[in-house]
Amino acid sequence: MTALATPPVTGRRNGAPPHLLRWMLRLHRTALVVWVVFVLVLAGLLLWLGGPLTDAAAEGWKQYHACASGGCVYDPSAVGRYKDWYAYTTAAVIAAPLLVAAWSGAALISRELEQGTAQLAWTQSVSPARWLAAKLALPAVLLTVGSGLLVGLHHWAWSTGQDRRLDSAKDWHDIGTYAANGTATAAMALAALVIGAYFGLLKRNSPGSLVGSLCGTGLLWSVMAIATPHLWPTVTKLSSLKHNVPQGSGIIVDQGLVTSTGAHIASPQCGSITDGNCRAVYAKLDAVGYYNDYHPQSHYWPLQLTATAIILAVTAALTVATFRLLQRQTGPTAPARKAAAV
Question: 75 versus 59: which is more confidently predicted?
């Protein structure tokens, strides 16, 4: 009796590597089409927002200011449409990482493990590590290009509103605007992909991986949102108590009152010293002015790029953890080919 190794039937010549890319496109073509359509539709809306909608809103505000003295009519609908669609598109750009996490966790990894297509691939001369790398490579490229395009278009649309001096345009430090305008959001899309892959391997079922990937992405996003104001040194601005509030516009980290000794204390939020009651309150506190520790607009890119670097570092660490989890689950090598004894 002679033992003969029986090669798997794959339809390939001379044991050539399987076409993982074509296989993945066939398995996940619906999700890929949905992502491409999502990016194209949202890109079109952002172009509309930064073009015709901004022009119409600027004209509406021009008419409004011309009517300040009375005696004329203006149409507020253009201003309202700009505000509404700005809010819709901003939310969509920010929500993209969560959508990606849901897809990657529930479909990209866990569904293939549930249906056995992953195990089938491992018997076709494809190691588990190579299978996972192929699963992450193409989506990572599509996510980087798509998210980068959306963030860039959103920043352009916002800048157009600033250039036209729309009274309803959001400040750069508005929470939604800050997130949708920067590179950290694009980096979050990659982090969401890896988080979804990790929970897809960990849970190996679509509902569990869906919940885990959404929670993991939301946690990372929340931590970065809380940490971002502390990623770069602040600017301190001192101002007179003749103002109602501390002066300085941007991302506020801390503000309050300055005493005659230079100490910083909490503000009672009384108002200007020109008010007699407030003057007595400030005198009792020995306050001589306001202080404001904040980030001006010049800190926008240092904050964004530092946050982006941290998110990418976390993504790299999660990628290593995901491959190690796969190795623990499957062993150091792919399943051996079946052999038949003759």
Answer: 59
Question: Position 66: which residue type?
Answer: A
Q: Which residues contact 253 (CB under 8 A, 6 or more apart)?
A: 229, 230, 234, 293, 294, 295
What's the pLDDT band for 122 if we cut at 50, 70, 90?
A: confident
Residue type, 90: T
Residue 253, classed as helix, strand or coil, is: strand
Contacts of 238 (CB under 8 A, 6+ apart): 258, 289, 290, 291, 292
What is the rounded distance in angstroms from the CA atom of residue 326 to the CA atom of residue 121? 14
Check: pTM over 0.70? Answer yes or no: yes
Is 56 a residue whose pLDDT tops 80? Answer: yes
Q: How far apart are CA 110 and CA 217, in angstroms?
A: 17
The runs of H, that is alpha helices, within the chain are: 20-27, 29-48, 54-66, 77-103, 110-115, 117-122, 128-163, 175-181, 183-203, 206-227, 276-285, 300-330
Strand order in the sheet with 264-265: 235-239, 287-295, 251-259, 264-265
Name every residue whose Cβ is closer than 8 Å to that of residue 92 and which is 6 or more positions away in sequence: 42, 45
Q: Token pair 């306050």 is at which residue?
A: 287
Q: How many other C-beta atoms can be found within 10 angstroms of the C-beta atom of residue 102? A: 19
The identity of residue 301, as a single letter, is W
